[in-house]
Amino acid sequence: MRRTAIAAALAALFPVCSLAQTAAGPSSIEMYGLVDLGLEHQDVGAASVTRLSSGVASGSRLGIRGREALNPGYAALFTIETRIEADSGAMGGRNPLYFCSTPTTCPGIANPTSSTLNNSLLQAVFTVNSVNALFDRQSYVGVVTPIGAFLLGRQYTPGYEIINKYNSFQDSMSGQFTQGYTTLAIRANNAVHYRIETGGFAASLMYGFGGTDAIRSERSTSPGSGDDFMGVNAQYVAPNFSVGVAHNRNKTVTFAAPTEARTGQVTTNVGATSTFGAVK
Asked: What is the largest CA-CA distance in the chain?
């Protein structure tokens, strides 16, 4: 599929105003967001379309995050962040130009019309938040302690953190078609996340207990760990350079072995930056 943003300059990209709590001390609650809307032309060979598209540069979003100071060295925090399709106001969408109506329009899937599952999988891969989850982007709560932070919920994965941080375009989609985002687990559901930062070093360790957006009963059938996720990263940041490495992997259940949890997608990402005067 060839996708071209023909008028990126038309994208309206701006932060939503922050509403910070005025109570004394470091405790706060903040509303934040971003709206990105542009004109795109999409061409799949036999068909094409020109339309408004949300998230040409970065995904439109609206979120609330809070922090409550506890004892010295401790704090509680949370983040909930919803996706917004600025062209329609919906939480999900950005559908492909075509769906799985006939075998000839479903590349890579053999005879898709014979399988409802294949149709569902295709839509899940090529659409964004197809189940309209309210807080699809992030939804977690955590506590910061003197020995690190512990976070629980739907979160960005350690691998995504590294590839995003060391990508020149960061999370701007207009420059990432060759960055491997379509083959990287960006977020993990039901995740337990530990983070620590000390001096110039930082590390992150995550385990996700699975559960897809569309089906929440997977773990009640064998194998219960069939869609678990694991990720880890490590970084070092100095005044003039930084380097990071991350490893993600998940388990999967195949049609060939429906009762076994096998190794699924595995990715390793390495990134670095160096500053030479005004050049980075």
From this structure: 63
